[in-house]
Amino acid sequence: MSPLTGWRAALRIARRDVLRAKGRSVLVAAMIALPVLGMTAADLTYRSVQPTLADELTAKIGSADAKFEAAGVGPIQVEQPPGDAEDWYLPEGGPYPEDDGNDLSVDVPAALPKGSRYLTEQSAPASVTTRHGVADTRVTEVDSGDPMLRGRIELVEGRYPESEGEIVATTGFSEDSGLSVGDRLTVRGPGRSYTLTGVVELPANLREKSLYALPGAVIAPWQEAADTDKSVLPPQASELAWLVKGPSGTGVTWPDILAANEKGVVATSRQVALNPPPNSQVPAAARSEQEEPEDGQTEATLTVVTMALLEIVLLAGPAFAVGARRSRRQLGLVGSCGGTRGQIRAVVLASGVVLGGTGAAVGAGAGFGLTILLRPMMENLSGQRFGSLAVHPWEILAIALLGLVTGVLAALAPAIVAGRQPVLESLTGRHGSRRSSRVLPVIGTVVLAGGIALAMYGGLRGSTQVVAAGSVLAELGLLGCIPAIVGFLGRLGRRLPLTPRIALRDAARNRGRTAPAIAAVMAAVAGTVAIATYTASITAEQAYDHRPNLTAGTAAAVADAGAGTAELSQVRAAVEQHYPISAVRADIERVWAGSDCAVHPGEEGRDCGALELIKPTGKPHTCPLSDDGAKELAQQISADEHKRLMNSPACVDEEYSHRVFSGDDHKIFVGGPELLDSYVKLKDPAAAKALSAGTPVLLNSAYAKDGEVVLKAIHAYNDGDDTRRTRQAQKATTAIDRLKVYVAPDRYAATPGIQMIMPKKTAHELGLHVGALGSIYTLTRDPSEAEKQAAKAAVTRAGDGAGIITATKAAGNDDDSTRLLLALFASVVTLGAAVMTTGLSKADAETDLTTLSAVGARPGVRRSLSGFQCLTVALTGVLLGTAAGIVPAVALRLTDLRAALEAMRSLPMQSAYTPIVLPWPTITFLALAVPALAGLLAAALTNSRTPLARRVG
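The structure assignment produced for this chain is given below.
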């Protein structure tokens, strides 16, 4: 008999067996379809969301053929690469623009191809009125209704502007501002009002918040208003750009760009970018850099595919083993009729072919449906439209083929076991019990330890490939230990109540079914925990490196030195009326010597006064990372020691050099105990008592020696300062005073913007001047966009001399959504694996359940038993996966630490802090919520009634 005939018979038997055991067959097909569905949806989403070069050009120039701009060097020749107008060069040996105020303008329309049509584009930042108040945005002047803008700007609601009194807004601006079609808004610069005629979106940037008007509608009237009224600031307009539609059938060619380059004009052409000329025709070819392709995405893709294959094999393998055991009589009959072991194996493998093919086809089709269904959500998450659904047929076919092949591989081990089973045992239904291997856990432990060691070695050496290899080995070693772990759990069950005891013993007795399911959960959770740990660590590092402009959770209402009391009062009222603040307000005042340099600018110490805290010399007061010998010191210290030095007051003073509340370098301000409490967060009663008694509070101890600071004040008065007459000072005088101070603990040295708080009476005793600066408020939450706009409107009415400052946020907060998606993915796999394994255990242990009913067990035992079986698989897999996922995350952070140390030893003041932070919310969700949900679902979906059993024999 030919092999083809034997396989035809095997496939026919397998097909009938699949139809006969519909429940088990659906479970197996679902196990195979789930990863195929995920890979298909991921492939379609990735291919669709990744912009092609054509998509990038459309986002930049719409449907136009090219975009022309002046290079900004005047009418002299420039050189540019074909695809990037921003990366241009001046010819070697050519003329350079003279920086002596000469006119560098260029007649760009004269450089356009003959017979072409063009649109102009120009933008400027502006403050506009909204339904809530005033908001800052960008206004772009371009004819957005022209066909040349299609693909770049698309209408969502209403119509495009048709006159200079009309304007359209993006969806992001419309939602934040509360404006809708038909509403009026005013651009504050020119003071002109416009009607909102439509809402548009930018397919390449759905989060854009801006306005679009016709050319000449905003910027020109604004400039005219600034020319006639000096109180109106002129617009900060960008350079003009020209969107060009070339002659019909020709477009904008490379010779057209070269001709424009000779006149000082650069261009981005769709035709040239998609079909670049040879380097021999590109003058700048030798000077432009080519980007090297990144291999990281390929490695990540291979890792994901490998994990998906492992998931299929681990999940579907036990199902085929259960199917083979339930069909052992049928397989025994095949053997008794002369069937060989190979033919018996072929019957089981044919089940893998049938179910693998079915699961792969269903998974691929469901992947398409899921992608289409979730497309709007994915577009919102990515912030851009997909355009068309990018389908690569060969990739989809390869994914489906992988599902088929892994279905066969999942059936391979059960097929081998079925082929070795004696015919007599198969016919009688008897099967002996096999002891689990004692060698496998030993090997697994050795491989686990070796993999961890290899991963850590790779991290210390900075090799991500070695880290990946070690992590895979560690996970494989843990896989080898799972049967022993399951057996240990079975022995723990002897002290538990009936139902969990039976569940644990059943899991231990059927390790061939339980261990792969636990391994599948472990593999999914390990990947999730690894990525979540790494991203949480990166977020913590970014938060540590962030230098806030204000103390977190605060807002400041401040006024310029020349502002009046009325303006400051209005700004304070704006914050108190519109921001979510606590009841306590902390006022802060400026202090200066001589004439105020903010009002009478000039050289400090000569034309106006100067105030300075003199830092003592010596080890506690000088930062060793910025002093002589810093590089030698950096070569010898660890990251922890470097962090300790960087957090010392002496080094904090070197790093936190920016000014917040005013332009004064000394960062000395006048305030009371409420400023310590609400802004500095210094709760020490001794500090408040000292401040009330007239003793300054020093926040940076590097300036103190023996509890005193040295304050140097140069009382220099400007000729235009009226206080000069009252002081009758003809020459600048210098005063150096020693002040007894309260020295705050070192952790307060990093307080943004303040170095020392001085009582007002002490400032007056020293002959210093004090003036109102503003107030600081503690926020109960972050203000909403509507509250910010309302407050800004009130500030606008107060004038330009006052404003509101809010604390800046650290970068990296978007990683929270990434960790959430990963946790949801791992939850789906965990629930699927646990529920499917529970279903298989019910099918495999029906006789045990019948025996329980026969000896008087309550009907609810079936439900609770299913629940605890599901809980056992889910909880064990999650805990092992968490441990396995920490290994690669820690190793990769060691790689980052190596790079950070190298950078620090080159630049000693650069941070080398590389924290390892566990994502406890994600781990808690996976370890508690998901197993509990799996157990409850399994219990709820289990029928508590015992089905009628068929008599055997």
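Interim note for the steering committee: Residues 860-906 form the longest helix (47 residues). The chain is about 50% helix and 15% strand.
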